[in-house]
Amino acid sequence: MVTFLLVFTLSVLQPITDLRGFDTPNDAGGNITLTWESPDSGKVMLEIFRSQSPLEGYQKVGSVLSSRREFVDTSALDGIKYYYYVVSIGEDGKTDRSEILGPVSSAPQWFNTKRWNVLIILILLIIIFFIFIRLAKREQEHIFARYLD
Question: Taking all residues of the chain, what is their mean pLDDT, rounded to a whole number?
Answer without folding.
Answer: 83
